[in-house]
Amino acid sequence: MTSPDQGVDALYFDGRSSRARAVKLSLADGELVLRGEDVERHVALAVLRLSEPLGRAPRLITFPDGAHCELPDDDVFRGLLLESGQRNAAVVRWQFSRTAVLVSLLVLVAGLWAVHEWLLPQLARRLAEGVPEALTERLSDETLEMLDVNVFSPSSLPAARQQALTKRVLALAQPDAPAVRPQLAFRRGGRMGANALALPSGLIVVTDELVMLARNDEEILGVLAHELGHVSRRHGLRLAIESSAIGLFAAWYIGDVSALMAGVPAALSQARYSRRFEREADTFAARLMGANGISPAALANILERMEMPASVGQEGGSEAAKPRRTPSDYFSTHPLTEERIRYLRGL
After folding, report:
1. Looking at the domain 8-89, which fold is it?
2. 72-101, pLDDT tens digit by residue?
3. Which helix (H) or strand (E) holds 135?
4. Domain boundaries, the chain
5. What is the mean pLDDT of residues 41-68?
6. What is the pLDDT of residue 115?
7. Given this model, what pLDDT does residue 264 score?
8. Containing H/E element for 40?
9. Most buried pick, 43, 125, 153, 221, via CB within 10 A?
10. Pair 208, 155: CB distance under 8 Å
């Protein structure tokens, strides 16, 4: 290591021209001593500014008058500082400490987890609750139009059957306030198969395959009650908002959700609800079904049958009459089905 007597090689720039001068730096009595061609300076260390280490880039010593030195070999100068009793700032020292780096990484991970698990959901919930009704209706209409083009086809259910199911849903007493105004739209599910999809306005798309799979209307009402739970808790909007943290921050900061809402229809059409959202919707459905004299087991029964292969658990009728389901059916949007079945049967 270079001793203080020998000094440390550096390049000096006086701040008035681009000329670089080769100089030697040393420390004496709390001062930086700079000697070189046509220049000699003695400046107190307290008034100098030393840049932080940045890889192999030269460190800079900046003087109060704007002049500066470039240090090609920071290790030598750092050793010189230590020998004179000087220390880098704590932040600089932490950069070279494995323990400090590890602690910082753990704090970062914990912070990101807290944002993802608590802060982001809370902000999304508040933002979703503030979305006006007119906007939720527009988003729902746009989502349904998108699905009609890419997934669904017109329903083949008789009009009388559609009207009967709609009448039963509208007659349901809702114990939770505010009540959701349900609307039913029937479609042939295509690759979505046996499914029901709730949109933010309260519009619930019911596939022919789901109606064909059910053994009684109570099972269908159980699925629709679950979807009403998603509407009541605004899960679709919250999920769409949570999926775009940057958009969420911008909407919160600016106070305008219109730009964020532009991407919601695509997100709603591909919703993948979390365990928490599914449990909230199941709890809502169980209360609604109980208030109307329907056992929550009816929902569990159809969930169990929907989880089976298409050729199992369906009695009667020809193969052509049985709904053909694909892997992209109800369970792609409703995970952890076995857990949910146990929960519903335990109520």
Report:
1. PH-domain like (2.30.29)
2. 877 777 777 776 655 666 666 676 677 877
3. helix 133-150
4. 8-89, 115-345
5. 85
6. 74
7. 54
8. strand 39-44
9. 221
10. yes
Of 294, 344, 280, give the one whose Cα is nearest residue 169. Answer: 294
Q: Is the dihedral of CA 260, 265, 271, 273 positive or negative?
A: positive
- The two beta strands, 203-207 and 183-188, are parallel
Max mean pLDDT range (55-64, 101-110, 225-234) = 225-234
Q: What is the DSSP letter of 308?
A: S
Look up residue 187 and give its two tokens: 């479609």
d(CA 238, CA 129): 9
Q: Which of 323, 306, 311 is nearest to 209 (CA)?
A: 323
Q: How many residues does the chain have?
A: 347
What is the model's pTM?
0.62
Q: What is the Cα–Cα distance from 164 to 167, expressed in whole angstroms?
A: 5
Provide the H-helix boundaries in 115-181. 120-129, 133-150, 159-170
Q: What are 36's strand-pairing partners?
A: 23, 39
Residues forming a β-bridge with 33: 26, 42
Residue type, 29: D
How far is it between the farthest Cα atoms of the chain? 103
